[in-house]
Amino acid sequence: RPLPAGPLTPKNVTVVAGTDLVLTCRLGSNLARALWTFEGRALAAEQVLVLGEARLRAL
After folding, report:
1. Do 42 and 36 meet the contact criterion of CB atoms below 8 Å apart?
2. What is the superkingdom listed in this entry's lineage (predicted)?
3. Do residues 9 and 18 lie in contact, with contact meaning Cβ atoms separated by under 8 Å?
4. Dihedral angle sign, alpha carbons of residues 6, 33, 56, 17
5. What CA–CA distance (Å, rounded) separates 42 from 53?
6. How many Å apart are CA 37 and CA 51, to the nearest integer?
7. pLDDT by residue (tens digit) across 6-39?
8. How far is it, in rounded angstroms, from Cα 51 to Cα 2?
């Protein structure tokens, strides 16, 4: 199935505190790069995120 071109509509994800969450991204080309954001800010690819007291914290 072909992948859509350009940015996708953001999706909200709700998880229970203490639960691991893995987000995946299928790229359609070896030249493509994923851009992960939180609250409008780009996250580094190696950044670890931890859910704490009703908000996401970047370590």
Report:
1. yes
2. Eukaryota
3. no
4. positive
5. 22
6. 15
7. 666 777 778 787 887 777 777 777 887 777 777 7
8. 33
